[in-house]
Amino acid sequence: MKTTAYLAFVLLGVIWGSNFIFVKWAAEHVTPGQIVLLRVVFGFLPILLFALVKRALRWEHLRYAHHFAVMSLLATAVYYFAFAKGTVLLPSSIAGLLSGAIPLFTFVCARLFMSEERISMTKAAGVGLGFLGVLLIARPWSSVGAISGLGVIYMVAGSMSVGCSFVYARRFISPLKLPAVALATYQIGLAMVLLSLVTSVQGIQVVFADTRAWTGLIVGLGLFGTGLAYVIYYFIVEHLAAVAAAGVTYIPPVVALVIGVFLVGDTIHPIGYAAMILILSGVAVLQLGSRQNVRRRRRRPEQGDASMWPLIRDVASSVEWAAPVGNKESSAVAMTAP
Question: How far, rounded to the nearest angstrom, does the alpha carbon of residue 304 sit from its chain's CA centroid?
Fold first, then answer.
């Protein structure tokens, strides 16, 4: 079964890394808002089916609807829209590289809004490396091979939005100890309702005239990139544990880069490759610092849980919130994908 889980691990990374090119194809015909609406609608269906099979949905969960609404905005509607806008303005490979910085922005949000979060030298080094990578991609000082600054801002805004959602979930949703799949269903479902209220559907049918565009949007982004991705991630966590599953964070930026350069023909400045190494190295160092905190906490249990690891470990763009490390039974989930 572990062999199947590792194959699913790779498949999930490929699915997430492919999302950016699907956005680019769809953007030739419809707006970013319409892309997000269709993605959420078709991504919601597999998640709902999975929740029904698991018998995870309960009427009494409605008392927490206000929390689900906040998560639907931060971790789905705003996050997906900002990433769609950024991807439209940037080469798909660059957008994919920037998505790898999500854990860095999660740490920043946690430091801003969670007073118990401490900054160690290891974590500071990780954040510094990662943000240096983001700066090298943007290169605001250079006009040669210039990257859209607005596109970078949208990607950063999306990362900050989902980062804040993780902090919100840690503080308000994780203590509820609700089933992971139930939370993902409520979050995506509410986002679908909200997006349908604010998104114009005028001209949305045009995308279905292009087989490549609608297949990438409906199947790639929706059914696979949002819906099936959650089911696969749940399977990975169940068989490899959340700590191992978090390693999938490193695959999508590389996949997006390969697709952009070899299939689309994106031209990447050599600095871009250095930036990717810096971002992924920064995430790795940041996670190392979080693990060190966990070890110290276990040696000094009386000091409580001030570790960022429960936050960072699952920022593979699909996040499982657990109280103790690896305890799926006490988890609450906010499922997202790049």
Answer: 28
